[in-house]
Amino acid sequence: MSWALRSSRRIRPVSNPSVSVVVIAFNDAGLVGEAVASALAQGPAVSEVVAVDDKSADGTSAVLDELAAAHPRLKVVHRTENSGGCGTPRNDGIAAATAPYVLFLDSDDVLAPGAAEALLRAATAHEAPVTVGACVRRELPEGNDVPWVPGLYTPGDVIERPADRPELVRDTLCVNKLYERAFLDKHAIRFPDGRFIYEDFVFTAQVLAAAPRIAVIDDLVYVWHVRRSAARKSISLDRKDVGNWRSRIAAHRRAVEILRGASEELARACQVKFLEYDLRMYLREVGSDPDYQAAWWTETRDYLAGFDEAAVESAAARARWIVRVLRATATPPADLQRLTRFAAEPPRLLPPYALADGVPVWSEEVPAELDGLAGLPVAELPVTVDAEAAGSLLRVRVHDLYGRLAEAAPRTATLRFVPRTGGVPVEGEAVALRADGDGVWTADLPFRLAALAVVGRRAGRRGMQAWDVRVGVECADGSSLLTSLRPLGSLLRRRVLPSSRYGVLLTQPYRTAAGSLALRLAPGAEGALNLVRNRLGRARMGRRSR
After folding, report:
1. Which run of H or of E encompasses 61?
2. Phi and psi (nearest 5°) for 398?
3. Tens digit of pLDDT for each residue in 136-167?
4. Among the residues of 216-329, which ranges form H helices?
5. What residues have CB less than 8 Å from 423, skipping those under 6 apart?
6. 413-434: b or e for each residue (b if 16 or more CB lie within 10 Å)?
7. How many Å apart are CA 472 and CA 429, to the nearest integer?
8. What is the pLDDT of residue 502?
9. I need a surface site. Which of 53, 70, 192, 307 has the fewest CB within 10 A?
10. Average pLDDT taken over every residue of the chain
11. Burial, 503: exposed, middle or buried (Cβ in 10 Å; 0-12, 13-18, 19+)?
């Protein structure tokens, strides 16, 4: 990995720089050793690793003591009471740290090789109190890496004033950054204590409000492990009741207050980020429990009532439309699931489509205006495409959206299969769309799943394969869009297909949590067994979650 830094400032390295890595742990005896090992493996850039055990009830404390006996650079802080959150143990770690710089690490994650040295070189070269590197969310056990806030930073950049880059509020993580300890002490920057969820929001707001110079490197520094099937979910993934959403709102409100004291631009950007990211993420996971839905709706409306109108108007069109629907009705609308589908990625606005005095609105019952629709490029239109079985073909129906798609004149449709574990998509054949009237275009597309399984096998996918199904629409005016499919009818039936390569191929089209079409392909007996095991595992997790 390379690191290329540029700055107009005179470079003056700090003498004898080093890093304290603060690892926090609670009931994580099986994973904390890997986290500590990744910190110790950073080499001489890390002068010490400070592990804070938050009064674990399992063997975490003993694991850390055993590691400390073998590694002089590791010192362990044993809390006598559990704090209930992540902020207090991190604060304890800062207090115990002795190096000029501090780096945070959670017990179920790891630092990338060379992370500390790369961050330290940039921090000292540019006298930057904060240095940021790349982070990935690694979905386990699949191992699929999803970049965190891609495109937000320019590798090699040196940001003199955060207020000049208000979009920085979108990176709320504290673990992908190196901090100068003197900077944190000077501005009294610490995490909220106790059971305060989303403590990163508040800490990051304090950092940005203190206006540090920020150096950016292109090295991968942090691997965030996401274990959605774990028996004990992380605090941020545990969304079984509205309390999690209430906590997120509380953290966000406090972050906005902190930022407003330093910069109106940063505060407004923080509210826009909430509308475009947090709100949509939780809305699409609102579930089917009417009590939860009602409580979530009330909490959200109450919070949005205090938002700056400038922030709402600055948000992307689809975020604005969600806000308008929320403000238009005191209780969840009858078509709430339609709203959750619209909040998904990619967004789909399902028919029917209503007008009020010729203006596009959400529905006849909730006439919230869909302002800005006329100005959206075709690629950003939340078009709905239905899919159903047609023998060995997949019949797709593309719905117009208030005449916007008709203006572009849809011409062809093409299937694209995207591996859910990451990798290169597989493109199908383009087929001409035919106009069926009433703003619908139809095409019958090749759906060769046996051939797809072979391509997946050649790419190294053994056993069960999982694919998202997308459709690309090309228009006569040169525009295009790519979106997911809404499965209908008998399409979701499991089928056994003959395969010259595998003997049999078990296919299971299914509907994702976002309501989109996806596939599980199980080539041969081994693949079928993996599919059965996968289904049993999901069933067990479903019973536990109930």
Report:
1. helix 60-70
2. -95, 125
3. 999 888 778 899 999 999 999 999 999 999 99
4. 242-260, 264-273, 279-283, 290-304, 309-314, 317-328
5. 459, 461
6. bbbebbbbeeeeebebeebebe
7. 10
8. 66
9. 70
10. 91
11. exposed
pLDDT at res. 239: 52
Full-model pTM: 0.89
CATH number for the segment(s) 19-237: 3.90.550.10
Residue 232 backbone phi and psi in degrees, to 5: -115, 105
Long-range contacts, 183-189 (Cβ 8 Å, 24+): 183/129, 183/130, 183/210, 183/212, 184/94, 184/102
Helix axes 242-260, 199-209, angle to 10 degrees: 10
**pLDDT score recorded for residue 393:** 96
Amino acid code (one letter) for 416: R
The helix (run of H) or strand (run of E) holding residue 342 is helix 336-343
Q: What are the residues facing 519 on neighbouring strands?
A: 467, 509
Which 3 state secondary structure label does DSSP give 251? helix
Distance CA 269, CA 204 (A): 14
Domain borders along the chain are: 19-237, 242-375, 379-545
Distance in angstroms (rounded) separating the CA atoms of residues 495 and 497 = 6
For 472, the enclosing helix (H) or strand (E) is strand 465-475
For strands 426-427 and 410-419, give the pairing.
antiparallel
> Residues of the chain whose pLDDT is less than 70?
1-15, 228-240, 500-502, 525-546
Alpha helices in 188-235 (DSSP H): 199-209
Angle at 475 between CA 473 and CA 476, to 5 degrees: 155
Q: State how far the Cα of 446 lies from the Cα of 491, in Å rounded to an integer.
A: 14
Handedness of CA 143, 149, 154, 155 (dihedral sign): negative
Helix, strand or coil, per DSSP, at residue 255: helix
The phi and psi torsions of 278 (rounded to 5 degrees) equal -60, -50
Question: Quick one: which of 122, 107, 15 has its CA closest to 56?
Answer: 107
Q: What is the pLDDT at residue 4? A: 29
Whether the Cβ atoms of residue 20 and residue 48 lie closer than 8 Å to each other: yes
User: What phi-psi label fits residue 460: left (phi over 0), alpha (psi between -120 and 50 degrees) or beta?
Assistant: left
Residues in the chain: 546
Torsion of CA 350, 352, 355, 356, to 10 degrees: -100
Interaxial angle between packed helices 317-328 and 290-304, expressed in degrees from 0 to 180 and rounded to the nearest 10:
110
